[in-house]
Amino acid sequence: MKEIKNLKKAADLIKKILAKNGKIIIFGDADLDGSTSALLLEEAIRNVNPAADLLVYFSEWESSDYGLNKQALQALAAYAPALLIAVDCGIGNFEELLMAKIMGFTTVVIDHHEILHTLPEADLIIDPKQKGDQYPFKKLTTVCLVYKLSQLLLGKNFSSFLDQGFAELAALGTIADMMPEEDLNAVLVGQGAATIKQTQRPGLKAMIGAAGLGESSAREIFKKLSLILNISPVTNHLTECYLLLKTASQEEAMVLAKKLLGEADKRHQEIYEITEIVSQRVAQSLSPIIFEGDEAWQRVFSGAIASRICNKYKKPTFIFKKNIQKCRGSVRVPKNMDAVAALKTCAPLLLMYGGHPPAAGFTVSSENVDALKKCLEEYFK
Ligand SMILES: [Mn+2]
């Protein structure tokens, strides 16, 4: 059986750190794949050692750069030396991982985004897309990678009870990330769907109730939940979807579920309105791409807006939040085009970029925005 490269090494490293009572920090991307990955890994580690010295920390949607970022590292500096595990981000964080190493962290990256020009300097990298990875399927979500890691961590203690809870997390993250339902992605979505109606997680029960999904099919439940939870506020460096999925308290679960549902409604309205504005701006455009930014838009919405616009106009779409110094945004491209390859061509103009061929993200300094647009038009012409 051809395994994911470095998965076994990562499990051994985590066990070694736990045996020495060392510190572990799980740093997650703030979307649902990142949040479920962080929670699954935390629950697996707690089942190996309930007293583990463990901290979970998420990236911010608006105020920081994508993935592992310098602000977060400065906040975490006091925890070094420790094992720092980045989940669903990291593969493009070249400077940050170098900085973490200098700060005294041992670093593990568990990511499924495209490899850029080279690999970052981490102690261990798990990404099925890296050279030398023998695992035949390359489109696992991060939460499925973490599920596999949890099997190695727990060994004989990987009980069917744990399996159910983990598969529900994996199904949620996988559906939210829109990766093809093949291989382990499909297995875990199926497994999660089989038990979701009898879920033991108070947060899932509360959300299914609050959203009126009691009579829906398992599939519909996951679709709706992933829409509600894929973007959630980050409070004290923890995503609220993580807090919802983690809580053992029914009361807390009810409060959070109602709050997240209300926020999702507001967000969908706002995304709809901005999508209308973009449509008006680009309706007559002859450019091969759609490239729109605004100071008033929140960065967190850029992916959802780009998806809608790209579906409507069938053109590569770049939507970003403008700031005085830098602009951050999302890319969606029609079938058979490659957003990461396009950004790679314009890499000298970018501060950061990364993602998947159909969906990616970028940060550009504001003085380079016009040049970036030209470069991308040239690429897609
Ligand atoms: Mn992901």
From TrEMBL:
GO molecular function annotation: exonuclease activity; nucleic acid binding
Boundaries of every DDH domain copy: 23-174
Alphabetized Pfam families for the sequence: DHH, DHHA1
Domain DHHA1: start-end pairs: 294-381
Gene3D superfamilies per record: 3.10.310.30, 3.90.1640.30
SUPFAM superfamilies per UniProt: DHH phosphoesterases
Protein name: DDH domain-containing protein
Organism: bacterium (Candidatus Gribaldobacteria) CG10_big_fil_rev_8_21_14_0_10_41_12
Upper lineage: Bacteria, Candidatus Gribaldobacteria
